[in-house]
Amino acid sequence: MRYNQLGNTGLFVSEICLGTMTFGAAGEGNIWGAIADVDQKVADRIVERSLAAGVNFIDTADVYSFGESEKLLGQALTNLGVPRKDVVVATKVYGLMGDKPNDRGASRGHIMDSVEASLERLQTDHVDLYQIHATDTVTPIDETLRALDDLVSRGLVRYVGVSNWQAWRIAKALGISERRGFARFEAVQAYYSIAGRDLERDIVPMMQEEKLGLMVWSPLAGGLLSGKYGPGAPGNGEGRRASFDFPPVDKDRAWACVAVMREIAEKHGTSVATVALAYILAKPFVTTVIIGAKRVEQLDQNLAAVNLKLDTADLTKLDEVSALAPEYPGWMLARQEAGRRPEPFQPKA
């Protein structure tokens, strides 16, 4: 297990982050009924196995099973007697947590109320990384950033991050934080997979320029890239995708990727899912890959990705089958940049 610097901080996090969206069971009639199915006993085992494998980074959110995920995680760390300093706990705020007008969003009021509730559920006095879970088009960015900065000043939060924002909005927030002396975003949590590399167009270049960490969510595209789905799949494709088809993925593109990954998996004697994760881990701009599990056996398969080193031929095949179509202004920038650097001077004979 490797440890990478989170953004422009001195904090190191494991290349695998345990995601806890599967913790809890919120019942029928909402998305958590299709995703979450882990009780306290299993949560304890999953957390214990992750820590034993070298994972020191765990991500959750207040909205996961409406707070149940945070509760199960907090209790698991207590049950296992994990020293607080040995684990980096990340959670998120924004999602709908009640039926009142101010029970969601990134307003100062909702952030202040939510962090206290999260700390209580997690049984801790601070959150290592507090993330805004979604874009709030109502609340001014300044208001959100000031609230987060106050939490850092009070010691309730150590670092702040953002999830599912556009590149321009993140850049704007960074500029505001720099001008006003606020704690800045240090990490971006975003969807990225071999079948969905859109992040590389704008967000990745911005992150590299600004020294932000990348936390990848759904690297298997909601299980679509696990090898259980598509032409030639060994099973009937049961799983989360059968009842919750998310995130959106071009299926033809995904099946082409799976076909190549299946060949590479056979070559290395491993699974399609392990290859999909290893491909994302091989990207130099990725700080950590978030993996979730409902069973310890599933967790072990995902953890195996850290030991799979894809060779140059493997990576080339995967890059080619998943390459993004040229898009403006990218293709124009590439054209105009060609020949911009002078050729080395060659003295005349």
Short structural summary:
The chain has 349 residues and is α/β, with parallel strands linked by helices.
Major sheet details: 8 strands, parallel, barrel
- The count of strands amounts to 10
Secondary structural class: alpha/beta
Strand content: 5-15%
Distance between the termini: 55 Å
Name the overall outline: globular
In spatial order, strands of the major sheet run: 3-4-5-6-7-8-9-10
Domain count, please report it.
1
Average predicted confidence as pLDDT: 94
- Number of helical segments with 4 or more residues: 13
CATH classification, class level: Alpha Beta
CATH architecture: Alpha-Beta Barrel
**SSE run:** EEEHHEHEHEHEHEHEHHHEHHH
Q: Radius of gyration in whole Å, from Cα? A: 21 Å
CATH superfamily: NADP-dependent oxidoreductase domain
The CATH topology corresponds to TIM Barrel
Helical content band: 25-40%
Organism: Rhizobium favelukesii
EC number: 1.1.1.149
Pfam families: Aldo_ket_red (PF00248)
Keywords: Oxidoreductase
Keywords for this entry:
14% strand; 349 residues; alpha/beta; two-stranded antiparallel ribbon; TIM Barrel; eight-stranded parallel beta barrel
Structure overview:
The protein is of the alpha/beta class. Helix content is 40%, strand content 14%. The chain has an 8-stranded parallel beta barrel, surrounded by 6 helices. The chain has a two-stranded antiparallel ribbon with strand order 1-2.
